[in-house]
Amino acid sequence: MSLLDEHSVFTSLNQQGPLAVSDAIDISRPFRRENRAWVSRISAHEITVTKYRALRSQIFEFLNVHSFRQIDALLDDQSARSECSNRACLLLSNMFGIRGTPEEIRTRVSEYARTADAVINSLKSKIFAPYASHVAITNEVEITADPVDLLLMAFDDRYHKKARFEAQRKLSLMSLAGSIDQRERETDIEENFSLFLDFLNRYVWSTSLKIGEHDIVYLLSHHRDPDFSCDEVSVIRREDVAAVMPEAGRKLTLLKRRRFTAAGRDIPIYVSIRKKPPEAKVLKLLRKNEKNPAVAVDDELGLMAVLDSAADVKIFQKHLTRSATRADSFMILEDITDSLTGGRHKATAKGSSSKTPMLKFFARLGGMRVEFIIHTNRSWVNYLYQRDVAHDEYEVKRIFDSGVADLLFPPAIYFLDHHRVRAAMISFFRRHIEETWR
User: CA nearest 68: which of 151, 168, 158, 144?
Assistant: First the structure.
């Protein structure tokens, strides 16, 4: 199912469809010529008619009105808007299972608004960085957190088409943020993240280093044409880096490594532990064309590790299982894919490459399910730098190839040619990778 067809769960944001924001809006005259033409357009797709009726019912219920004429009357009635806002926040608190005083509920809803803005600003600061002025949020929309004010903004012809679209988009993103927050509270993600860190510090990492202490080294990698893949990689001590001179096709990559003790020795390991921020989860829901985080976001807790060799990877995997047992928990590995030893990674996500070697699995232990992605030094530098594989390229491709760029920044409103932007940003990241020493 495409993110941009009539079967998408985000039909209301699709500016290529019948529910697109128009250049002007006049809800006080429902039978004008433009409205009759619009009715004819949506009638061509029965699923769109069904979705429109459901959306209209939700809008009327949310604003406590029975017709679009009553919405028009709300636009200039500040007292009625305030009463409507209080009622709407109560409805949202019950829908998302928020407990607390009215002020605490409003604070939580405001957090959803900040997450919605963070989704757009995160893309503006990286994937669309050279086009930041094109995709910047309209000031009036960015400072508004009240869902009633945003919804009424979408019906107010005093606002430009771009502002009305962004108000509608912000409401949709806030709804996703609310679903994610509810899911996090149901699964105790914050507590699990803390428990996972405690498990690693108590049972996995060597006690020869203090918590938070690292051995700093560099990977010196040599890359070959035409794909900039790693031909050779070696570990360089920090004190020896000054003697290594820049050279075309060479990269220096810093690693802050911990250690774990197994097989009678201390084995170095670079580790990046992450809990996906809400804006990243919202983007994942969009990419997967899904509104239910329980279905789409299966990697809330994750660990990325880099070891010197495939042999060390196997030792670490066994060490994890034994560490879980010492912590009084059985550990099972699920959904294992291993392309480090010559197999081929099966890429399923839009924009991802099957050329990326890694060991990937989910570990279920201590009431948690944690995603592990494990690399060797060679596969790690390929993950960072190889053409068609590098993570920066992947981030660009998955935003454009999934349809998220078109959905959030429709060309008719933002005047961007997404095919050209995609190519330009991949070229930008390639230059940065291949021309930067470290």
Answer: 151
Asked whether residue 308 is domain-assigned, the answer is yes
Give the H or E element holding residue 231: strand 229-237
pLDDT digits (tens, 9 = 90+) for 42-65: 776 788 788 888 888 999 999 999
State the total domains in the chain: 2
Task: Please state the φ and ψ torsions of residue 37, each to the nearest 5 degrees.
Answer: -65, -35
Regarding whether 383 and 342 lie in a shared domain, the answer is: yes
- The whole-angstrom separation of Cα 264 and Cα 53 is 67
- 78 and 155 share a domain? yes
Q: What is the DSSP letter of 203?
A: I
Domain annotation covers residue 250: no
The CB density around residue 235, as the number of other CB atoms within 10 Å, is 14
The pTM assigned to this predicted structure is: 0.91
- Among candidates 383, 425, 430, which has minimal Cα distance to 400? 425
* Contacts for 297 with CB less than 8 Å, ≥ 6 apart: 180, 183, 276, 281, 284, 285
